[in-house]
Write a structure and sequence with these properties.
The chain is mainly α and about 525 residues long. Helix content is about 70%, strand content about 5%. It is built from 18 helices and 6 strands. The strands form 3 sheets. Strands 1-4 form a two-stranded antiparallel ribbon. It has a two-stranded antiparallel ribbon with strand order 2-3. Helix 3 packs antiparallel against helix 10 (about 310-340) and helix 17 runs antiparallel to helix 18 (about 485-510).
């Protein structure tokens, strides 16, 4: 494909031109004579460059000249609230794990298996919906902003609108309706198939863990609709470049869960049942608060169902469902292999896994912020800003991963006693320090590469690479535990994250994919594309 490049340097106001991708080939290259640049500047909004019956529309927007400092500042202002939001939910889960752990190793192992099943089923559709909604809403807002319909200015991570008018965005309505349907489906699947899911995880009806795990999973299934809708809402709000609202809602909801844990579990003597009820109630609190906030800013339901973007969501989401299936299969296999090591080993694995995920997901907030900025800038053809965001977020993520690795390595022994007093479990946990801490830089870069893939809507590669990585890691997980025990499970998970990181580097290094502009001199070419 032959692409058209042009750049005009004006004396007073820098202007860049974006070519609408309306056709595949150009007959020849065009250039703008600098001697007539003042004339071009005056008439740019009224003219287009034409050849035969093909038209290339040019749009003026100074946004492509955003300074490096402004880009980094905006990313930081978006990331800080997002990091807080990502930390709140895992911290509440850690508190839940700690309270359950004090009931005994059997209760902890039973709840751990049920939580893993719930996460597997809920994330199958939730993560694709969250990721696609972020990109689609950001692109939708950016396109409307270019038409003067939506303001995209931000202040400290929260959008500023020039008017109080609620926005009609089809991407928002589509995401919410899909979330409701998916949430109901997941609730039915978890409720009706809880016994089958437990057997798949290696927990037979004769296992001492089975009754507690079955009761816990059946109760947690009631919260599935709230979880799906709340994640879709987070994706929508990220698309609005609003990372503060989710923090407020998640903070209130999870605080209520932490408040209810000891009351229902200990005072009313409900045990793990009280933990499940507390979590479900907090999930609905979070969802209703987010709906209330979003309703002030956007019209939640479309005037016509025909205007919904189900096709786009299903196409892009289909790739990510395949990707999520591969990731969930690998994580499920790791939990299943750990459960086969016995209740004590499973309890230790649950603690390690919760700490591992809770800490590593902090960098996922940086990835989500980067995704929103990349999608917004790319929809305007602002490749220079996208390039700046990409390199900055990768460097920042690597540093964050290193800091988290050191912090966990130093404090893990102290953290372990917060979850259990069982000496056998604590003895096994000491062998997991290296896995939990040393893998953090790998986790950080893996999550950030995911956000970058989603930002440029590179969903096919995200799916195919994950399937390949998952197949290799699953093969290790099938055989390593029989030789190394629980350490073999952790080896497989570390390999899983490391290969994801490598796949991300390979994609960005390619000059023929969506990241072609990383290898181009954007000071000379302000417009371009790839085949």
């Amino acid at each position: 494909m032959k692409w058209f490049f042009s750049k005009v340097n004006l004396q007073r106001k820098p202007v860049s031109f974006v070519v609408s991708n309306q056709f595949d080939k150009f007959g020849s290259e065009y250039s703008v004579d600098l001697d007539v640049e003042e004339k071009v500047s005056r008439e740019i909004k009224e003219h287009s460059i034409c050849k035969s019956d093909r038209t290339v529309e040019l749009t003026e927007h100074p946004a492509s000249q955003v300074s490096s400092h402004d880009v980094k500042l905006e990313l930081i202002m978006l990331s800080l609230p997002a990091i807080a939001g990502q930390a709140i939910d895992p911290l509440a889960q850690l508190m839940e794990t700690a309270y359950i752990g004090r009931l005994g190793s059997l209760e902890l192992a039973s709840a751990g298996v049920s939580i893993s099943i719930f996460n597997i089923v809920s994330k199958l559709f939730n993560i694709p919906l969250l990721s696609v909604a972020t990109s689609f809403v950001a692109e939708d807002i950016s396109k409307n902003a270019n038409k003067g319909a939506v303001s995209e200015e931000t202040t400290d991570g929260k959008p500023y609108n020039s008017t109080n008018e609620r926005k009609q965005l089809h991407s928002v309505s589509t995401a919410l309706l899909l979330a409701v349907v998916i949430g109901i489906f997941e609730a039915l699947a978890l409720s009706l198939g809880s016994g089958l899911f437990l057997k798949f995880m290696g927990i037979s009806s004769d296992s001492p863990m089975y009754p507690t795990a079955l009761r816990f999973l059946s109760l947690r299934a009631l919260g599935a609709p709230a979880v799906v809708v709340s994640l879709a809402l987070q994706g929508v709000l990220r698309g609005f470049k609003d990372t503060k609202t989710p923090v407020i809602c998640l903070g209130i909801g999870n605080f209520s869960a932490v408040f209810l844990f000891p009351i229902l579990m200990y005072y009313f003597r409900l045990g793990v049942t009280g933990a499940a009820i507390s979590t479900v109630l907090s999930q609905y609190i979070v969802t209703f608060l987010m709906i209330w906030y979003l309703n002030k800013r956007a019209v939640l339901l479309p005037p016509k169902l025909t205007e919904l973007q189900f096709g786009s969501y299903i196409k892009s989401g289909g790739f990510l469902i395949g990707r999520t299936l591969s990731a969930l299969f690998t994580m499920t296999l790791s939990t299943s292999m750990a459960a086969r090591q016995g209740p004590i080993a499973m309890a230790a694995h649950q603690i390690c896994l919760q700490v591992w995920l809770a800490v590593s997901l902090l960098t996922d907030a940086l990835a989500a912020s980067g995704q929103a900025l990349v999608a917004s800038s790319l929809s305007k053809g602002d490749y220079k800003t996208v390039k700046e965001i990409t390199f900055f977020v990768l460097k920042t993520g690597f540093v964050m991963g290193g800091v988290l690795a050191v912090a966990l390595g130093v404090s893990f022994d102290s953290l372990a006693v917060l979850f259990t007093r069982d000496t056998e479990v604590l003895g096994i946990l000491k062998t997991g320090v290296l896995f939990v801490s040393a893998s953090q830089p790998l986790n950080a870069l893996a999550f950030i590469f995911d956000g970058l893939h989603y930002g440029v809507s590179d969903f096919p590669y995200a799916a195919s690479s994950m399937i390949t990585v998952g197949a290799i890691s699953s093969a290790i997980l099938l055989y390593a535990p029989s030789i190394f025990g629980l350490r073999g499970v952790w080896l497989g998970l570390a390999l899983f994250m490391g290969l994801r990181m490598v796949a991300g580097f390979i994609r960005l290094a390619s000059k023929n994919g969506p990241w072609w502009f990383l290898h181009a001199d954007l000071d000379r070419t302000s417009i371009g594309g790839y085949t």
